Amino acid sequence: MDILKIEHLSKVYGKGETAVKALDDVSFSVRKGEFAAIIGPSGSGKSTLLHMLGGVDRPTSGNVFVDNTNLYELNETQLAIFRRRQIGLIYQFYNLIPVLTVEENITLPLLLDEHKVDGKQFAEIVKMLDLENRLSHLPNQLSGGQQQRVSIGRALISNPAIMLADEPTGNLDSKNSSEIIDLLKMFNKTYNQTLLVITHDERIALQADRVISIEDGRIAKDEVIRP
Length: 227
Ligand SMILES: Nc1ncnc2c1ncn2[C@@H]1O[C@H](COP(=O)(O)OP(=O)(O)OP(=O)(O)O)[C@@H](O)[C@H]1O
Ligand SMILES: [Mg+2]
Prior knowledge:
Residues 4-227 form the ABC transporter domain. InterPro entries: AAA+_ATPase, ABC_transporter-like_ATP-bd, ABC_transporter-like_CS, MacB-like_ATP-bd, P-loop_NTPase. This protein is of the alpha/beta class. It has one domain (33-60, 75-224): 3-Layer(aba) Sandwich (Rossmann fold). It has 7 helices and 10 strands. Strands 6-7-8-3-9-10 form a 6-stranded mixed β-sheet, sandwiched between helices. It has a 4-stranded antiparallel β-sheet with strand order 2-1-4-5, with helices on one face. Strand 1 (2-13) and strand 2 (20-31) form a beta hairpin. The longest helix has 17 residues, at 174-190. The protein is globular. The protein starts with a strand and ends with a strand. Magnesium ion binds at residues 46-47, 166.
């Protein structure tokens, strides 16, 4: 089953002489449970693509279907709710809320939705992320690896249909990088969580089931490594 379907996606930033075509007629699908790496040179359009898949920013043309919902037919409010429930986003610099504790950062998407926190699920997630002894800490009291684990917890708490990560290990040393990738892979394999990771790190790309190369806003190569 295709959890994600992208049809003729294009994105132009700006207008007139300064217009930049960041994505140029990109189409592909991702199966549920697949782990795909997205690679390509700086400026090729990787982050733009992830933003369009995650409902963060609207494309100039084309469609994105997540679990059969056409994202860009939703209005802003519907899109914000859909994003919170169905899309887990992980960034290089964590994007945690500095004044909220670890526990509050992780449960924030549920609270914004006025959903109750499932205590058992929360306990399971923080245990797997090894954050049990850090729940009352603020983000600036944590190491980089710990902060990224909090952002993974926040992305997982609403059981999203897909997890999108933009260079999740770009700010970490090699030991912490491996830990973060192992965690993402664990959630991918154990919970059949669909995972798309942008990376400049070849060792990470080679762990994926599939590697999609982006060049000049287009798919230059799309290789299945593990069918
Ligand atoms: N908000 C924006 N306004 C104008 N141009 C933008 C904007 N965001 C990105 N671009 C341009 O779109 C192109 C693609 O950018 P994008 O951030 O998607 O690249 P990337 O592949 O993620 O690069 P990197 O590996 O450096 O993160 C670049 O030429 C960039 O300058
Ligand atoms: Mg980028």
